[in-house]
Amino acid sequence: METFDLIIVGGGPVGLFTGYFAGLHGLKTIILEALADYGGQPQMLYPAKTIQDIPAYRKINGTALTKQLLASLETTTTVLRKNYRATTFNKYKDLWVINHEIAAKSIIIATGQGAFRPKQLPIKLDDQIADHVHYSLPDPAIFTNKDVAVLGGGDSALDFSLELAKLARVTLIHRRPEFRGMESNVQKLKKLKNVEILTPYLPQALSFHDNKIRLTCKQVGSNKERQKDFDEILVAYGFRANNRFLRKWEVELEEGLVAVNSKMQTNLNGVYAIGDAVTYDGRAPLIGLGFGEGQIAVMQIMRQVFPEKMLTVHSTALQ
Ligand SMILES: Cc1cc2nc3c(=O)[nH]c(=O)nc-3n(C[C@H](O)[C@H](O)[C@H](O)COP(=O)(O)OP(=O)(O)OC[C@H]3O[C@@H](n4cnc5c(N)ncnc54)[C@H](O)[C@@H]3O)c2cc1C
Description:
There is one protein chain. This protein is of the alpha/beta class. It has two domains: about 1-115 and about 240-315, FAD/NAD(P)-binding domain (3-Layer(bba) Sandwich), CATH 3.50.50; about 120-235, FAD/NAD(P)-binding domain, CATH 3.50.50. The chain is about 25% helix and about 30% strand. The protein has eight helices and 22 strands. The strands form six sheets. Strands 1, 2, 5, 6, 7, 8 and 21 form a seven-stranded mixed sheet that branches. A five-stranded parallel sheet has the order 10-17-11-12-13, covered by helices on one side. Helix 1 runs parallel beside helix 8 and helix 5 (about 155-165) packs parallel to helix 6. The site of flavin-adenine dinucleotide has 36 residues, from helix 1, helix 2, strand 9 and helix 8.
């Protein structure tokens, strides 16, 4: 069994910052993230949107915020583990154990609205094609000079298309004539020469031809078909979030969110919760607020569980 001082479940912005803060204060910490990419909602749902209320950043987008948080973590000993979904939670002596293999005296739940799963393209894919079908945009540079199909009609599809249009040829395909996302972004896309908008078309089949992926779409309401070849396909049908596993963990919930006191403690000794996963009177879903909750939880853990490690509250005294 791997043993740490602290396990943080969830590698969204709040979990990442808290992992940095805990590492800075000498707690042997691991962050577990269910997805293949860190960064939670800003990275997965709105990577290109400008966030204007992160302390000390006048403006920063979701991708850049995630990069900065990961860069800070590199300066600590905090361990990051992605593609790792915490499902079971048990007590063994004075340790909390995740998935029967990772143990710690303290846990911070930072699972946001729940473990994300991208809504899948409802087409059967063979492995060769599946390698070219993406559900997120962690590194737009890999699409440079490529023909890319973006599928979807919400804000993410529009944001992805605008971001990719800076370096690739983009075809945005949506099953309805109108988009759900911001109209101003639709207008921006319509003005770009390297962007084609195909509506109302529904993707039907993908096949491999001469190193390209041939996408066959059917026009909604008619039998007309259209085929186009692409290098990469980016699916932006949104995400489903699932926090149901928390019910089995016996943490007290209020309307599906973890109930905490002002020290971010749950009903279970040594188990804390922060960020969008929690509820208390007056909470708002804000990243900066979650950062502060992470600091409260770590300070509390230092005082209660590891008093011998509690050297100072202020990082300025840590050099
Ligand atoms: C469109 C949009 C715009 C927004 N704009 C702003 C803004 O301008 N300013 C602002 O402050 N906030 C904004 N927010 C809110 C902000 O994104 C959230 O408050 C923030 O992401 C919460 O961070 P978190 O780390 O608590 O949760 P999340 O970002 O939800 O991250 C939780 C992470 O935990 C992982 N996880 C969940 N369950 C498990 C499990 N069992 N095992 C392992 N990993 C798990 C998830 O995969 C996810 O990566 C916006 C939100 C949206 C949707």
